[in-house]
Amino acid sequence: MPFTPRVFSGVQPTGQLHLGNYLGAVRRFVAMQDDYPCIYCVVDLHAITMWQDPKELIDATYSVTAAYLAAGIDPKKSIVFNQSRVTAHAELAWIFNCVARMGWLNRMTQFKEKAGKDKENASTGLFVYPNLMAADILAYQATHVPVGDDQKQHLELTRDIAQKFNHDYAERLAELGYGEDGLFPMTEPIIQGPATRVMSLRDGSKKMSKSEASDASRINLTDDADAIAQKIRKAKTDPEPLPSDVKGLEGRPEADNLVGIYAALASTTKEAVLTDHGGQGFSAFKPALAELAVEVLAPMNAEMRRLLDDRAHLDAVLTDGAERAHAIAAPILRDVKRVVGFVS
Ligand code: TYM
Predict the structure, then answer these.
(1) CB distance 82 to ligand 1 below 6 Å
(2) Is the pLDDT of residue 226 over 70?
(3) CA distances from 215 to 15, 20, 174, 220, 235 (A)
(4) Do residues 231 and 201 lie in contact, with contact meaning Cβ atoms separated by under 8 Å?
(5) Hey, is 207 helix, strand or coil?
(6) DSSP character for 199?
C-alpha cells in the first residue's frame, strides 16, 4: 500500500463516556500509539447532529479530552484535538455529500436507530453524518480506524466513498500524477479484542449506550468505586455457574458480556478468564469483576478530575493538536480541490 500507515478515530462529546466507549475504543487507541502515528479527535461537529446544549457541549469536549489523556493517550506523541477547530473536516464532508448516494445513506442502521419514528424531524446533518465521518478519516488518508462494532457499517461506507471518488476522478488523478491507488486509501476498521460490543448491564441484548434511560445499565467513567461495585452486583445474569470454555457462553448473553468485560479490563482473552473462573457462580465472579473494574477505572477517574481542573492545559493540548492536524490535512485537501476542479 503506498499510503503511510496512520490511525484516526473519534468519540462524540455527548454525555458521559461509559465502559463500552473505553473498552471498545479508547483503550484500543492507547494501545495503537506505540505502533502508528495516531490522530484522536473529539467529534463536536458530529455531536450537533442531535440537539446539544452549548454549555454542556463544550464541557463534554473537555471531558472527552480529559478521558483520552487519563486513559493514557500521550498528546505529545498522538494528535488530540476537537473536530470543529480544523475546517478540512467540514470542507471535505461537503465534497463527500456530493459523492455518496442517497441509497447508501438510506441503508445506515444508526440513522434509523437515532432518528427513531420521527424521521421527518431528524436533522439533515444526522442523515449525512457518515459522510462527515468519512471526511474525518480521509482528510488524513488514515489507513486504520479502531472502533467498536457499532461503527462497522460507517467504515464500510467510508471505503465506498473513497472508492467512488478514486473511480469518478480517475482520469484527473492520472493527469495529476496519481498512481492506481488514487487519492484515498481503503481504510481498514480495527474492531478487535474481547469487548468490541459491550452490552447493557440490565439487558444482554442491548448495547451499553449513553442514551439508555437507566443509569444502572452502564458504568460511566466518572462513577466512583461504590457505584461501580453496586452496578456490577446488580447486573442481570442467569443462575448457572460460568462455563469452562467460550463455547459454553453461547446463548448466555449476560454471562458472555461480563466475561468479555473482565477479559478486556485484564488485557487478556475470554478463554483465559474462563480457565481461571470457569465453574464459579456469579456471587464469586461479580466481586472479582468489581474489584478489577475499580482497580482499572479509579486511577483514571482521579486523573480525569485532576485534568478537568486545569482547562488551560486541556486547551493547550487541543490548540497544539489542531495545528498539527491541520498541517497534515491541508495539503491533502489542497490536492482534493485540484482533483475536483476548484483550483488548477
Ligand atoms: P461514539 O461517540 O458513539 O462512540 C465512541 C467509540 O466507542 C465505541 N462504542 C462501543 N464499543 C463497545 N461497546 C459499546 N457498547 C460501545 N458504544 C460505543 C464506538 O464504536 C466508537 O468507536 N461515529 C462515531 C464517532 C466518529 C468516528 C469518526 C469514529 C466520528 N468520526 C471517525 C471513527 C472514525 C461515534 O459516534 O462514536
Answers:
(1) no
(2) yes
(3) 12, 14, 54, 8, 12
(4) yes
(5) strand
(6) B
Cβ neighbors of 271 (< 8 A, separation 6 or more) are 245, 246
CA distances in angstroms from 256 to 38, 67, 90, 201, 227, listed in the order given: 31, 27, 40, 11, 22
Instruction: Please tell me if the CB atom of residue 13 comes closer than 6 angstroms to any atom of ligand 1.
Output: no
Q: Report how far residue 281's alpha carbon sits from residue 205's, in angstroms, rounded to the nearest whole number.
A: 21
Please tell me whether the overall predicted TM-score, pTM, comes out greater than 0.85 for this model. Answer: yes
Average pLDDT, the chain: 97
Residue closest to 90 by CA, chosen among 54, 48, 145, 39: 48
Q: Residue 7 is placed in which grid cell?
A: 490511525
Over residues 115-121, the mean pLDDT reads: 92
SS3 category, 235: coil
Distances (CA, A) of 241 to 229, 235, 260: 20, 15, 16
State the Rg of the chain over Cα.
21
pLDDT tier, 15 (very low <50, low <70, confident <90, very high otherwise): confident
Q: Whose CA is nearest to atom 9 of ligand 1?
A: 21
Q: CB–CB of 207/199 below 8 Å?
A: yes
Side-chain half-sphere CA neighbours of 187 within 13 A: 35
> Could you give the residue numbers annotated as active site?
114, 207, 210
pLDDT tens, 292-321? 999 999 999 999 999 999 999 999 999 999
Structure-block grid coordinates of residue 169: 476522478
